[in-house]
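Hey, can you fold this one?
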Amino acid sequence: MKATLRTDGGARGNPGPAGIGVLLVDENGREIAAGGRFVGTATNNVAEYMALITGLEAARAAGVTDLTVCCDSELVVKQMRGEYRVRNEALKPLFARACDVSRGFDSVRFVHVRRAENQVADRLANQAMDARHDVGYGLGECDEPPSTLF
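Sure. Predicted structure:
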């Protein structure tokens, strides 16, 4: 199955209270997952990676084989494409986890989009930050509890 994943992570303060947003739609535009999570205190870049990992896990659990990932974090997209090295020590294990999960698909393509093209994921991340708990549906569970991943 082909699908598109839109992810966003944000932090109010850097670091500060952080949330992630994930929107997964199939090739016909049907929503598979649309949710957000409050992730505690994190930097914006850590939240962006947490959103990516959560979205990749949701896509894998839904049986997606060919995935296009749209993200407004140029850093994350270029690191996942291998265009930038990961220098930040806090991002290295998240990058490794994202790469590992990405290998579970037949194909994965990472696309940088403008913030305006990522409004749903951004809204979900903000809703989770405002509520300080999960919102939406379809995110499932990662293989490991978030506290051990992030």
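Helices lie at 44-61, 74-81, 92-102, 119-131, 146-149. Let me know if you want another pass with a different chain boundary.
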